[in-house]
Design brief:
19% strand; 2 helices; single chain; alpha+beta; 74 residues
């Protein structure tokens, strides 16, 4: 399984129990399933690297399918 797929699966499992944190960012460490919540990406990342300084993280917005939208909307 690809890391992004693992992150998506972990997020699907934790998203509903994090409902009170809606709109915040979660950083997911896919090898352990550990996750770290912050008001923004930087805060979540700073919490995450304290425990996993050399890991790769995937970021999601709690209560949403995506963290970012890039593009033009009318």
């Amino acid at each position: 399984m690809m890391n992004k797929d693992r992150a998506d699966k972990i997020f699907a499992n934790i998203n509903s129990k994090l409902a009170k944190e809606k709109g915040k960012i979660v950083a997911i460490e896919v090898n352990t399933g550990d996750y770290f919540i912050g008001e923004d990406e930087l805060e979540a990342y700073e919490k995450a690297i304290e425990q996993h300084p050399s890991s790769e993280f995937f970021f999601k917005r709690i209560g949403s399918k995506t963290a970012f939208f890039v593009g033009f909307q009318k």
